[in-house]
Design brief:
Layout (H helix, E strand, L loop, with lengths): L1 H17 L2 H37 L3 H29 L6 E3 L3 H26 L3 H21 L2 H4 L1 E3 L8 H41 L3 H55 L1
Parallel strand pairs: 1-2
């Protein structure tokens, strides 16, 4: 069995070698550049969607909704711009110890398997004509890939492997590491979601304009889901950072309690 274990270790090492930090930085930069151009496009799609749905469904309220959505995209885009630096750099000096690196290996392999599964599931949905569902599943798979890529960068997440430290703080360390990983993927995920959601909304709108009868309801739902996805994607850095801020306080509080207990223990000894 030793040969099998060595083979599996080699496979994991090869996989982790492909998920290098430089590649993640390049992907992030490309997504950010596309999103910078995509936010004005998303705002324009919101307005066009409102006009198109108003004409198709004979309801002028959709025009106001489209304009309001475009204003929301711009406002949330500005807020996200202000929170982006925090998502990239907050907690860079934090350090969390793990007793074994196998924790990270299991997380990375699990996320990669989830990403591959999402690709296959999305292809099945695509062949069935479920374009919106396929896009959503592929987006989830891409997020899993970004998470795996981020977990593979121990320096960026502030991970230290110390086999002599014991496993007493491993759960708290994993929680802290996962929280920082969530923060690091906020910006690239936001960029990706804005790009995909804008394309999905536009395609659904074109389908709505060309559809009749029951198909109209399907495309209307696609347009609605797409616009909500755009707004959620644009705002991602904002709510992820605020989520990080609240939970970081709880983690720091727990770590301080553990430190006090350790000091008390050493004092008694």
């Amino acid at each position: 069995m030793e040969k099998l274990w060595v083979l599996i270790d080699s496979g994991i090492a090869w996989l982790k070698g492909k998920l290098n930090p430089e590649g993640l930085d390049k992907l992030d930069a490309k997504l950010q550049a596309m999103a910078d151009r995509g936010i004005p496009v998303a705002a324009g799609v919101m307005v066009l969607t409102g006009i198109g749905m108003s004409a198709k469904l004979d309801d002028s309220d959709y025009i106001a909704t489209g304009i309001g959505g475009a204003i929301g995209v711009v406002a949330l885009g500005y807020l996200s711009h202000r929170f982006t630096e925090g998502c990239r750099t907050a907690g860079m000096g934090d350090r969390s110890k793990l007793s074994l690196e196998v924790y990270l290996d299991l997380i990375i392999c699990g996320l990669i398997l989830a990403s591959v599964g999402a690709v296959l599931a999305g292809l099945g949905l695509l062949f069935d004509g479920e374009f919106d569902e396929a896009a959503a599943v592929w987006s989830g798979g891409f997020v899993c890939l970004l998470c795996a890529w981020t977990f593979n960068d121990k320096d960026r997440l502030g991970v230290e492997i110390d086999t002599e430290a014991g496993a007493s703080n491993d759960l708290l360390s994993l929680y802290s590491i996962s929280l920082r990983a969530l923060l690091r993927i906020a910006v690239p995920v936001s960029s990706f979601v804005v790009i995909v959601a804008t394309a999905m909304t536009l395609l659904s709108m074109l389908g709505l304009l060309a559809s009749d009868g029951m198909d109209s309801y399907k495309y209307t739902a696609g347009v609605t889901a797409g616009t909500m996805m755009i707004l959620g994607g644009v705002a991602a850095p904002v709510y992820v950072y605020l989520y990080y801020a609240v939970l970081s306080f709880l983690v720091s509080f727990a770590e301080n309690i553990l430190s006090i207990k350790d000091i008390a223990k050493h004092t008694r000894e």
